[in-house]
Every structure is written in C-alpha cells, then in structure tokens.
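ok, trying the design again with the full structure, not the truncated one.
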C-alpha cells in the first residue's frame, strides 16, 4: 500500500542499470509500484524490495502514472502505443506517462499526439547521471510537458535524486538533455587532451587531476571521472556508441535551428573515429586512451585510491 505522501499507483517500464536503481529509490519511499521489463528475470530482484512484476506493459494500464526508461525510440513506441503497450487497453489508461528515454523529436511527437488523443499526458523527463550517482542521491532531472501533469508527477521525480528542473510545456527537456550530452563529450575530450599533455611532461594523472579538481576548473563531473582516468577503469557507464547517437541528434537540432556547433562537430568526428577503431562499447572515459595513441605516452593504471567526489 502506498504512503499517504505518494498516493498514486505507479508503473515502471524498463529495469536496466538506471531503471533498476531508480525503482529501488521509489520503493524505499513506499511507492505503490508495478514493474515490467522485457526480460522478466532482470526485474525479479525488485520484487524482494516491494515491486509487483508484470508480464506486459498492458498490465500497467490501470496505474495512475507510468514511467518509461527503455533503450531507444522504437522501444518507447512499442511499450506505449504498441499492440501490448500501456495505452493499448480500450477502457483503462494511465493519467500520465513520464518518459526518460533519449529519443528524437518525431518519435516524441508521435507518442505525445497519440497519448493525447487517448487522454494521457506525456512528460519528457531525461536524467543526468548513472547508477552510482543515483545511489549517492545526486541524480538530476529535466522535465517538460503539461504543467498540471508535472505538478502531479513531481513528488515521484524528486525521489530520483538532488534536483528536478522544469523547462516548458512542450518537448524542451529532450533538447536540454541532448545539449547536456554534447557538453559531456566536449568536456571529456578536452579533459583527455590536457591529461595526456600533463603526463607527457612527467606529471602523474592522479597529481594533475588532484590539482584540477580543486581549482576553479574542477567540477562534479571531472571529479567523478578521475578514478577512471587514473586507473584506466573503463567499465561502461555511458558508451561511445551512445555518445555518438546523442551528438548526431544534437548536430541535427543545430541544423534545424540554424545554430552552428563547430566544437561539437569536431568532437563528433573524434567519437566516430573511436567507434570505428573498436572503442564503441567502452565507457567514454576511454577517450583518454584514444587520445594517447600516436603520442610518446604509454598509459598504465596508476592503481591509486582516488575519490570520485560522490561520497
């Protein structure tokens, strides 16, 4: 039974690494939550935390609010307006769908229009972070869509982490997330270049980044990526392939809006090159190793216990 503070019946579609971490936060606050994942076994551990696992998105039609966090555009449409989607039932549909998947404008428009015809409001709610950031309570969300729906969903969105920012009545949040990821790639490439430069001069990565992180140029992000850079730990949190997709969405938006993005275009080519050289499935922190190729610097793990700034 839901807590009085969270009275709505909530559904969740998609329990990958991020989805599972966010579901756990909702369950920890006693949210009444039903969950669907394409591979049921991956969702089963959440039953021990209080979730009810269902076998199709259609079974979530009676939920008041349904969150979706799936792989991409085709998946979003399948689990929402598809034959077994959450909107497929003739007599029962959620009041609100909150979609946190990174999708293109036409897909978002298709979903919003069809849902609206059926009486369901759609909020775009991309997030910034990964499961470790979620666990630390530092996740941020950007949301757009009808204000009334936003006000209803806000208490649940606030459980995700540190900050929720509302940016408009339309689809603005999706572009904001793309802009965020353009900066993510540009900053990581710059961080890789200057770190390799410092190491070429004989400065350890741990020492250089220790200085950088406590300077005015340090940030939550540079601190977070420091252990990966120092110890060459490229366990995937966000891959080159995903970064490439977001750069292409961002550059397309620039063309549509007549906004030149010369730096982003250059980094896009670097990402394209890295994917072609086999880095595609690695964490994008391996931009460091790609940068070191062709220099007189041979990277080795420094095996140092350095903070990621989250704890």
């Amino acid at each position: 039974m839901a807590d009085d503070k969270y009275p709505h019946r909530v559904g969740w579609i998609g329990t990958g690494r991020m989805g599972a971490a966010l579901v756990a936060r909702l369950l920890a606050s006693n949210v009444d939550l039903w969950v669907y994942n394409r591979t049921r076994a991956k969702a089963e551990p959440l039953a021990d935390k209080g979730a009810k696992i269902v076998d199709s998105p259609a079974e979530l039609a009676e939920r008041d609010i349904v969150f979706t966090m799936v792989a991409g555009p085709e998946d979003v449409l399948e689990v929402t307006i598809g034959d077994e989607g959450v909107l497929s039932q003739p007599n029962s549909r959620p009041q609100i769908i909150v979609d946190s998947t990174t999708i293109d404008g036409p897909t978002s428009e298709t979903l919003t229009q069809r849902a609206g015809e059926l009486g369901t409001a759609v909020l775009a709610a991309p997030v910034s972070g990964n499961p470790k950031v979620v666990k630390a309570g530092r996740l941020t969300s950007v949301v757009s869509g009808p204000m009334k729906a936003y006000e209803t969903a806000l208490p649940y969105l606030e459980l995700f982490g540190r900050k929720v920012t509302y940016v408009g009545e339309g689809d603005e949040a999706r572009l904001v997330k793309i802009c965020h990821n353009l900066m993510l790639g540009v900053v990581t490439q710059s961080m890789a270049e200057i770190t390799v430069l410092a190491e070429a001069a004989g400065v350890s990565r741990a020492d250089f980044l220790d200085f950088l992180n406590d300077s005015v140029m340090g940030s939550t992000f540079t601190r977070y990526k420091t252990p990966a850079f120092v110890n060459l730990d490229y366990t995937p949190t966000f891959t080159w392939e995903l970064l490439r997709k977001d750069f292409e969405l961002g550059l397309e938006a620039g063309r549509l809006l007549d906004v030149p993005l010369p730096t982003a275009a250059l980094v896009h080519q670097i990402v394209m090159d890295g994917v072609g050289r086999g880095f595609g499935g690695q964490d994008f922190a391996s931009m460091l190793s790609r940068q070191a190729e062709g220099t007189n610097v041979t990277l080795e793990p420094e095996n140092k216990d350095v903070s990621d700034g989250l704890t």
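Keeping the full-length input from now on. Residues 153 and 273 are 41 Å apart (CA to CA).
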